[in-house]
Write a structure and sequence with these properties.
The structure is a homodimer.
Chain A lengths: L1 E6 L4 E11 L2 E11 L6 H19 L3 E5 L7 H20 L4 E4 L1 H9 L6 H12 L8 H17 L13
Helix pairs in contact in A: 1-2, 3-5, 4-5
Amino acid sequence: MIILGIDPAMRRTGYGVIEMQSADRAAIVDCGIIGNARELSHSECLRRLYGGVGELVRNFHPDCVAMEEAFYGKNVKTSLILSMARGAIIAALAEQGVPIYAYSPRKAKQAVVGSGSATKGQVAAMMAVRFAIEIAGIPDDATDALALALCHGQVAAVPGLQDLLPQPV
Amino acid sequence: MIILGIDPAMRRTGYGVIEMQSADRAAIVDCGIIGNARELSHSECLRRLYGGVGELVRNFHPDCVAMEEAFYGKNVKTSLILSMARGAIIAALAEQGVPIYAYSPRKAKQAVVGSGSATKGQVAAMMAVRFAIEIAGIPDDATDALALALCHGQVAAVPGLQDLLPQPV
């Protein structure tokens, strides 16, 4: 089972691809960022997100996607911009027929670090251990995406636990 | 100059295609709805919006799009869902290289009816006169989209008024 984790954003979308080798063993396949420079218009950013996510699916053939859920930030304008990014990303995934499962940041952190209030650094440290990687050069948005993928994978890979998964988006 | 007006929504996206025949004469080419049934998942709705908008562009070859601006409704959850729809639609338009201009509902109503607080019925009545159409069978979302297209067109079609147009999205 290959899982693509996505931490969406207009300017810096993190992604992480993992393979569940057994119910309790996950290996990292790839991770990184789809970056959109500050000077790009929203329409160009959304075009690049749609295309970039499509490319990830064609490259890695994920069985499913674990994505950060929509949430209501303090800054409403920022939340609306983030939702536009989610819309373009979900459209690209749906076009390729990949099922999408959404998790709140808190839920993902609870699942992989054991605490919903873990810092980004603590999430990154846990990803380093779980995947036996050197995380010094990996951006937080990518380790967050790995955490989302693992949060989904560690339930999805256990036979009989399907009822615990959220409804696909 | 062909202008595609879009009133975006997850379930009922209105569209209207107009042709500016001169600076002060506009003709209707088509209008309607991209509808998504209540039982469809968000991912399926977004896939259909992306595809539907792409089809409109391929059918009508608009020079530009006039779209309703993002706004902060009373219901934050509804606003986030609407923003996802906008994201998928903008990604589709950007993929086809069509410039997008955003107008608030108030601005569009001011421009075409003369009052920012006009009702949907009043906007529809004005569209009936301007385009000499029978609007009884046309849904409000489609007449709103026609108003957006006209709001943009009546400035864009006048040589020398380009400075009055908003920045593309």
